[in-house]
Amino acid sequence: MEKIGRKEREHLAHREEILRAAEKIFAAKGFFQTTMSEIAQGAEFGTGTLYKYFKSKEDLYFTLIDEKTGEINRLVKDELSRKTSAIERIKKVLILELEFMEQNRDFFRIYTSEGSRFEWSVKDDCGKKIHDKMVDYIQLLAQVLKQGMKAGELKPFAPLDLAHAFEGIVHSFIFEWLISPESYPLISKVETILEIFLKGTEKMERRK
User: What is the C-alpha to C-alpha distance for residues 125 and 121, in angstroms, rounded to an integer?
Assistant: First the structure.
């Protein structure tokens, strides 16, 4: 691994400090009520310094979205790469996703409630990055589902279609949880989601 210089280490450290401060303030106040000067104060930098790292508040927020997407994708890919049964891996991935959302609920709720008002040029650019990460994940999930079909755990379907269907179910539960006025643990929906998904795909012999 190539060793980075002192200036590069300082640059990365300062960038991380800004992102951590921004995440806390965004989660507490929402996107539109947060100012760059508040983030600068939280990170203990001058406001001008923030613009050396991020061109706008939107850029800063969507960088956080992109990095969080990358974080959960790494966890999910590691789990999908294990040598356990397909159904076991799917359940572990589901738990990872729901736990991650619970840990970051206030942050992601901002995007759900305020996303339509974001600057489109920044949103589109970030959206492509997130889309590319999602495509990689869906393709890996499809491979695991295909393995489950070959092993006789799942009924034969088009693996890619099935992967999209699974994530569609998961995302609908996450969205409802984010906008719900009632407080309940998202992780409590694991068995419900699995039952909905597997009822149509799992081999009947396994459920007898």
Answer: 6
**CB neighbours of 46 closer than 8 A, spacing ≥ 6?**
40
The hierarchical CATH code for the domain 1-54 is 1.10.10.60
The average confidence (pLDDT) of the chain is 86
Closest of 40, 52, 68 to residue 126, by C-alpha: 68
Is the pLDDT at 73 greater than 70, yes or no?
Answer: yes
Neighbours of 128 (CB within 10 A): 10
Mean pLDDT, to the nearest integer, of 22-38?
Answer: 91
| Burial bucket for residue 163 (CB in 10 Å: 0-12, 13-18, 19+) | buried
- What is the predicted pLDDT for the residue at 1? 47
Q: Are 153 and 54 in contact (CB under 8 A)?
A: no
Q: Could you give phi then psi for residue 202, rounded to 5 degrees?
A: -75, 145
Q: How far apart are CA 16 and CA 10, in angstroms?
A: 10
DSSP 8-state class, residue 33: T
Q: CA 116, CA 25: separation in Å to the nearest integer?
A: 20
Assigned fold of 56-207: Tetracycline Repressor; domain 2 (1.10.357)
**Position 139: which residue type?**
Q
Q: Is 53 helix (H, G, I), strand (E, B) or coil?
A: helix
What are the start and end residues of each CATH 1.10.10.60 domain in the chain? 1-54
Please list the residues that pair with 154 across neighbouring strands.
Answer: 202
Q: How many residues does the chain have?
A: 208
